Amino acid sequence: MTEKTQEYEVIVVGGGAAGLSAALVLGRARRRTLVVDAGEPRNAPAAHMQGYLSRDGMSPARFLAVGREEIARYGVELVRDRAVDVTRAEDFAVRLAGGRTVRARQLVVATGLKDELPPVPGVAERFGRDVVHCPYCHGWEVRDQAFGVLATTAMSVHQALMVSQWSADVTLFLHTVAEAEPTDEDLRRLAAAGVRVVPGEVAGLVVEDDRLTGVRLVDGQVHEREVLFVAPRAVPRTDLLARLGAELSETPFGTYPVVDGRGLTTVPGLWAAGNASGFAEQVVNAASRGYRAGAAINGELLMADLDLAVAAGAADAEAPAVRR
């Protein structure tokens, strides 16, 4: 071990729910583990997270702080840095932006994804407050208010129908997305759900006293709305996986690695967890996937070491005795 190169049994890249959960399991299994955390959680704009049993309403920042405290109890190291490159020979070598290179027998990529918001003035500034994307994450908190849905994909009609579960006052703004133009069947469903459909490009949001009050079209019309649902474009952070040759699969929600039920990619020893492995991983799901990967990795390391010991024992037994 040198000043610039350190060796671990497992490196976890990503310090969100998936990465910390994997690290917790590995630390409790007495594995020398390092978490590399660039500090860019997907849910950072949200004040609270919902739907996680026993953690409902906790702030994402507090959740991560508690997770870091827990992994530290078991000797897991955490470094605030970014993994900028990775190679593999006998083990994985991860180069960090700070200049260090760290090595490990197994590598977990839990780098999540980035939400790219539509370029409508005001959307990015209000995201996580009264501009939201997930009814399961925010629907209860904004229930019964005047909803708008900004069409961004062909799935926007579905989003408008879904959010009608939380409000009887929903307007779908078709904006500039041709794929979002409702079919006849869509129109019948939208009418049944009480969703109004407004054609025309959205020019921006109307904000008064630091709260959303309306959606303005390019023709000057303003539709009073209190909440706006959008569907950001999900951009998975899969660069490290691609550099190591993991097989990737195109989905309607982005390009994700092919993994088995435990999170193992097509590259031996390389694992993916959380939103790096799929679009629909909420915090509770990501933590579960991290736990599963951590337990599977410990089993892989254990069996590999036992097989080496068995092979070494067989070799010793076959070696000729030394004459004295």
UniProtKB/TrEMBL annotation:
Keywords: Flavoprotein, Oxidoreductase. The keyword Transcription regulation does not apply. The lineage of its organism: Bacteria, Bacillati, Actinomycetota, Actinomycetes, Kitasatosporales. Residues 8-290 form the FAD/NAD(P)-binding domain. It holds the Pfam family Pyr_redox_2. InterPro entries: FAD/NAD-bd_sf (IPR036188), FAD/NAD-binding_dom (IPR023753), Ferredoxin-NADP_redctase_2 (IPR050097). It catalyses: [thioredoxin]-dithiol + NADP(+) = [thioredoxin]-disulfide + NADPH + H(+). This is Thioredoxin reductase.
